[in-house]
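Q: For a teaching session next week I want to show students how multiple molecules come together into a single three-dimensional assembly. I've collected the sequence lines for a complex. Could you give me the predicted structure tokens for the whole thing so I can convert them for display?
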Amino acid sequence: MIPVCPTTALPPGEATRIEADEPIAVFNVDGEFYAIDDTCTHQDASLADGWLDGCSVECPLHASCFDLRTGKVSGPPAKTPVRTHRVVVQDGMVYVQPGTTGDGVA
Amino acid sequence: MSSTIAVVGASLAGLSAARALREQSYDGRIVVVGDEVHAPYDRPPLSKEFLAGTASLEDIALGAPDDEDLGLEWRLHTTAVGLDHPSRSVLLHDGSTIRADGVVLATGARARRLPGSEGLDGVHVLRSLDDAIALREDLAAAGRLVVIGAGFIGAEVAATARTLGLEVTVVETQPVPLAGPLGADMGVVCAGLHADHGTRLLLGTGVAGLVGTGRVEAVELTDGTRLPADVVVVGIGAVPNIGWLARSGVALGNGVLTDARCATNIPGVVAVGDCAATWSAAAERHVRIEHWTNALEQPATAVATLLGAGGPAPTPVPYFWSDQYGARIQFAGSRREGDVARVVEGSCADRSFLVVYERDGRPVAVLGMNQPRLFTRWRRQLRAAVPAGS
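A: Of course. Below is the structure for the complete assembly, covering every listed component.
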């Protein structure tokens, strides 16, 4: 597991990027944490810089939208989903398990 | 018998309308009419990655795997030539008609051409995929490009052509490019990218005409200067594709006139995207928005109107972007003459900054260059600050 930050450092509505083999973006949606691949599948842009609206993040450049829960594209021009990753909160710290799906199924 | 909705226009607005119909539980027949032979594709890359050859047709296709499930009936390479509103029928160029219970007008806009440029090889506009393919082929064999118009399309084509190694001159009649959307101060800053990258920019200069027989050889300016050119790109704006509706009874102005929820004066007919002039309570007039984001988002409102769902008129914060010379320019909000532009981050000289436009001390618009994260924060803030129904 990769430590991300203390939960207090990532308040609701905020996102952060962590460096892994592929960078990962971690979001706090009203207290629920989600992690997806950080790089938009459309073009090179960081989704952690994007616009969070409910459980959807909009790419900061060309407005592709992804569902944080599933990684699916919810708005074009992207066509390919992003991967989701499992987030674990333990003792006030946020961790990400890269390569495991967000719904807890490895 | 199940009902039919005809979507006239098969680009981003039309495709978004078809998707919105299914999202809003419409289970009848959907016929999408498009005059181009191509399936829906994304236009912004046409002046950038696609023109540069770094994005393929497959890359810019808008269709997603899930679209198969939408059950759309495509009528591509088919031009709508009229709308008979008593029977709500769309008349097609081949003489056939589509009788529909609802019609979405999404015919977009076309590039404005330079008078006298017809039939001269080497002179291009850039709007469609075919335009981009033709321009790309011509640029590959050219040394000197003259771009007429320093708006976003012109600037992006100039930037792409520089990366392809061409000698580029941009001619603009206005003393400052992009002053309309960005204001004069920021127009100067953004236009500075041309000089940074070796593109010559001639301002306050009109075009008298094109020189050449058969193929363009030069652009003649109003001051008598002749700019030799192998290729000329005309980027002087777009006009809405509404001529086909002239005798339809649909109210037209600078676009199909609609209320704030995209309804035209004809029941069961809505209009979206570049062809629509939508009532804006804030601006107190009909506003035709050519932005990609509008074509993406507006159809959801139009479809709700068509399906009889109520709700308040949306209060979108207009947003557009432009990529030039590797710089990412983003703008959101509505700027008016007299708004004060203030740099809140970075510096214009560094080509990395965020500028907030203020009116009576309140932020009304934001411009970023190479500041996507901060820009997004401000854009979100602007959206939150728009009072409902304004």
